[in-house]
């Protein structure tokens, strides 16, 4: 490791919060990774240590998460206004601003967080108002997440407490009982945090990482080298089943996959996209 890399106690604690792994293991992984958190997580997983599934939310601390759709459910946004403490996240003024920012985002559908911060509100910009809040409240406050979604039918789900929210788009809007189906699927996304809609939507880098980790663990277990690739591919299929939305077991009926559940209503019905965000 380079002598210039210094691993602080704060770094170790941050990795522990991200992964749930012991302090010494986190320290050793960070040292091996020369301070790179993504690489340290990869190292911990390769060593077979159980890593809590907090990677997508690792920059989040506390805040208010909200998702909204327009009146005809063809457009929606999901946004998080982040802060440092749960106390501020429940502050009435903080919540009111988060809701107003979200309403403005739904009205304009900005392309990204930067554009969202430039939207005018009260004669100023959202970014200016956030700066004012920081000065008034005394905590770091920022928009930690923003995503818009368009589809023939978009459903938004705000979990009670506004610490997690999800939004799902569907390819049809005229299916009987669609609102209930959409709510069930959005709750599935909120609870199970899938990484993609279907197998073909999983990023190549994610597939490479999962196969790499599987091979390393199988070698560690002493599996024959000529069997490792076949077993690793089998583990990848398990990953698809657990981590892609349409292939996940439906949380309300584990005899059905999400694909089977929605196609019981309409054979052509499918999910076109989704997003999810959580704090804490």
List keywords for this structure.
280 residues; alpha+beta; Helicase, Ruva Protein, domain 3; Tetrahydropterin Synthase, Chain A; three-stranded antiparallel β-sheet; 10 strands; flat
Question: Nutshell version of this structure?
Answer:
By secondary structure, the protein is an alpha+beta fold. The chain has helices at 9-19, 23-32, 37-46, 86-89, 92-108, 113-117, 126-137, 178-192, 204-220, 225-243, 258-263, and strands at residues 62-69, 75-83, 120-121, 124-125, 142-150, 153-158, 164-170, 249-250, 253-257, 271-278.
Spell out the CATH superfamily of one domain. Elongation factor Ts, dimerisation domain
**Overall pLDDT, averaged?**
90
Q: What portion of residues is helical?
A: 40-55%
Globally, the shape reads flat
- The helix tally amounts to 11
Which consecutive residue ranges, at least 5 long each, have pLDDT under 50? Answer: 55-60
Q: Can you list the strand order of the major beta sheet? A: 1-2-5
Task: State the order of secondary-structure elements, H for helix, E for strand.
Answer: HHHEEHHHEEHEEEHHHEEHE
Assess the beta-strand content as a share of residues: 15-25%
Counted beta strands: 10
Largest sheet: 3 strands, antiparallel
CA distance, first residue to last residue? 32 Å
What does this structure look like?
With 280 residues, this protein is of the alpha+beta class. Among the domains are: 9-52, Orthogonal Bundle (Helicase, Ruva Protein, domain 3); 62-165, Elongation factor Ts, dimerisation domain (Tetrahydropterin Synthase, Chain A, 2-Layer Sandwich), CATH 3.30.479. Helices cover 45% and strands 21% of the residues. The chain is built from eleven helices and ten strands. It has helices at residues 9-19, 23-32, 37-46, 86-89, 92-108, 113-117, 126-137, 178-192, 204-220, 225-243, 258-263; strands at residues 62-69, 75-83, 120-121, 124-125, 142-150, 153-158, 164-170, 249-250, 253-257, 271-278. The protein has a three-stranded antiparallel sheet. Strands 6-7-10 form a three-stranded antiparallel sheet. A two-stranded antiparallel sheet has the order 3-4. Strand 3 and strand 4 form a beta hairpin. Helix 1 (9-19) packs across helix 2 (23-32), helix 2 crosses helix 3 and helix 9 (204-220) crosses helix 10. Residues 55-60 have low confidence and may be disordered.
